[in-house]
Amino acid sequence: MQSNTNSSPLTVRRIVRTWWPLAASWLLMGAELPVLSAVVARLADPEINLAAYGGVVFPLALVIESPIIMLLAASTALSRDWGSYVKLHRFMMLTSASLTALHALIAFTPLYYVVVRGVLGAPAEIVEPARLGLMIMLPWTWAIAYRRFNQGVLIRFGHSRAVGVGTVIRLISDGAVLLTGYLVGVLPGVVVATSAVAAGVVSEAVYTGLRVRPVLRYELRAQPAVEPPLTYRAFFLFYIPLVFTSLLSLLVQPIGSAALSRMPDALASLAIWPVVTGLVFMLRGLGIAFNEVVVALLDEPRSAAALSRFTAILATLTTAGLLVIAATPLSHFWFAGVSALSPRLAALAGGALWLALPMPALSAAQSWYQGAILHSRRTRGITEAVAVFLLVNGVILFAGVAWGGATGLYVGLMSMVISTLLQTGWLWQCSRAARRAAGDRDILASPAHAIG
To answer: Which of 34, 54, 116, 234 could form a disulfide with 278, with the two C-beta atoms 3.0–4.6 Å apart?
Structure first.
């Protein structure tokens, strides 16, 4: 049996070269929420404005955009020729317009009060500030859809560094608006935060659209047409499970806000939540960035072992990073100094950080398992895993509300860790066939097998 023995095997160095620009992008994106929180905490009424943004605006914006979150993975996997790109682009634009209309309906009509007062049960003092913030966030969904879709093309054709450049541009825009709002000092914190986020995502989308043009013209158009051609039926069979995945995944945000609003110390928990999860997300993002790397590189010769090895390295290093922060004065420095939380809130946040310790490692493992599933194009297992996450998370949060004996922040973090652990286990099980197939292909491609 012949195999391609001239192809170089995938190395950890090659993985790092593909991963680090995406990781830097995720790390910078992860820094966005702590920076926002730090500025808002230094403006008037910090507890109310932090709770309005982290407890209402951000969760609702995430749920509205959930159907387009997976466009990055879909574009990376499917933008292989011009015909496929055109179909995906048409879907992206139509879906973005529909979701933006939904965002406007919630933010600018009485439906807002049905959702925020009736469903979320938000504390009364944050309802109106949050509505103004949600109005400002109107461009969010369309800008993110356009950006993620075109970033998938850049990653597919080996331009992952451009993703990091786009994130830098986004943060510069964020920073300019935040600095202006801080220096002016009279605008509500939630207005400053949402204005910065909206400006950031729009500027990144503009850059990505310009950067992808030569790739479309000279690289994507030159690709031979895939056989069989991508049809909308095949695309929806691939993408609809991912839509449910992102929707179910992001539903945990408003569900968590609704639960925290009904547990002891509600306002403090809602105010601290974006600060703690923002810090954890910076390290989790290093693992999340690995997902697209797996999708892009699993076709490479002898890739399965190298990708698995890199997963273990990444999980170990990111967990160690969070442990160092939690176990040293860095925790107090971050929460009291950088984030400007009051002594009481900083103490609550420092204790809560220990509960989130497994999250970075779980994110790295999930990206390996989920990337293998995406590569196989049998995405149902991803949706099932997120359904497990949402079910377990909901049960624990419901129990916390019914019990009423623990601070909502701690219940929310424990719920997140336990449900993520079970979600990762489900992904491990569902990805076994895809990972085994990749391993078998590696064996067939090995020089020893070719000689034999």
So the answer is: 34
d(Cα 382, Cα 362) in Å, to the nearest integer?
A: 15
Kindly report the backbone phi and psi dihedral angles of residue 221, in degrees, each rounded to the nearest multiple of 5, phi listed first. Answer: -65, -25
Domain, as residue range, for 325:
12-451
In sequence order, what DSSP letters do the residues of 200-231 get, joined into one string?
Answer: HHHHHHHHHHHHHHHHIIIIITTSPPPSSPP-
Render the burial of 190-222: b for 16+ CB within 10 Å, e for the rest: bbbbbbbbbbbbbbbbbbbeebbeebbeebbee
Q: Residue 447 has what pLDDT?
A: 55
| Beta carbons of 150 and 212 less than 8 angstroms apart | yes
Q: How many other C-beta atoms can be found within 10 angstroms of the C-beta atom of residue 232? A: 11
DSSP per-residue letters across 381-416: HHHHHHHHHHHHHHHHHHHHHHH--S-HHHHHHHHH
Distance CA 6, CA 290 (A): 27
Asked if residue 6 belongs to a domain, the reply is no
Number of domains in the chain: 1
Long-range contacts of 435-444 (CB under 8 A, 24+ apart): 435/304, 435/308, 435/369, 435/372, 437/376, 438/298, 438/303, 438/304, 438/372, 438/375, 439/304, 439/305, 441/304, 442/301, 442/302, 442/303, 442/304, 442/305, 444/1, 444/3
Domain-embedded: residue 235: yes
**Residue bearing the bigger pLDDT, 167 or 100:** 100
pLDDT at residue 452 is higher than 60: no
Predicted confidence at residue 3, as pLDDT, reads: 36
Computed over every residue of the chain, the mean pLDDT equals 88
**Is pLDDT above 80 for 257?**
no
At 33 the pLDDT is 75
pLDDT band at 250 (very low <50, low <70, confident <90, very high): low
Contacts with 315 (C-beta within 8 Å, 6 or more apart), sequence order: 287, 360, 361, 364, 365
The answer to whether the CB of 297 falls within 8 A of the CB of 15 is yes
Q: What is the pTM of this model?
A: 0.74
pLDDT at 446: 59
Domain membership of residue 169 (yes or no) is: yes
- Is the pLDDT reported for residue 6 higher than 60? no
Residue 389 domain-assigned? yes
